[in-house]
Amino acid sequence: MKKIIEDSPKKHISTVQSVDKALLLLRMISESKIGLSINDLIDKTGFNRTTIWRSLNSLAEQSLIERNPQTKLYTVGTFFYLLSNKNNYHQFLIRRTHHLMKALCEEIHESVHLSLPLTTTTITIEQLVPEDQVKLIDYIHVELPLHSTSSGKIVLSTLEKGDLEAILSGHLTSYSPSTITEPDKLRVEIARIKEDGYATVFGELETAENGLSLPILDANEQLIAVLSVSGPEFRFTETKMQEALPIAKKYRDLMATAILRDTDME
Question: Taking every annotated instance into account, which residue ranges of this chain make up the domain IclR-ED (predicted)?
């Protein structure tokens, strides 16, 4: 153990230097219009061939770069194209649904959100607040837990039993006195969500905020996104939620139609 501790600073410095070199190579490759060969990189950086080769291999293993077998040139890898397509998909969903979310926001006079399911969280890609209200919490691009949000509970209700149990058997963080952290209670609520088709939260993530969520499904009944309505507990009460539910369902259906009307990205 003593030897590891003594070597750690040196190893740390070496690792940082290696990362810096790899990032420099990645930047040069990304800025090239046609790609760069290993000899180009040697000329530009002055690094030795072995150092560059190791860095290129590490970058390639993570799909950050790729080598054209014909030209022998390195270009940016598939990771960046996938990342770009992901962002384009987010924008596609927003373009298709923004006008409907705005109309819903104006009709019920509460905040509305559009979220996407991730592996163990959801991420909000759009949030609209009534013009005469202040946005107290900005959820855009924030990942939220599944068990303490209405959007997350929608995701839980769509999971296969094994995937659901894997999440419920893990640590369920308590964010407020109202957060449900008992797996059996969550199972009961998830069963209700499957039956009713919507999910609610009452101060389970933010103490003073309540929420209502509905799934947006594709033609195969697979979850595409989640439409949510939220508001302060003193105003967005359970009674108000029930009044807003049929309105939210109407717009959810319109949003599903807008998203699925064709398969071409705009």
Answer: 79-261
Q: What is the CATH number of domain 2-76?
A: 1.10.10.10
Q: What is the pTM of this model?
A: 0.69
What percent of the chain has a predicted confidence (pLDDT) above 90? 65
Residue type, 239: T
First to last CA, the chain: 58
Tokens 């309505």 belong to 229
- Low-confidence residues in the chain, pLDDT < 70: 1-16, 70, 81-82, 262-266
> How do the domains of the chain map onto residue ranges?
2-76, 82-260
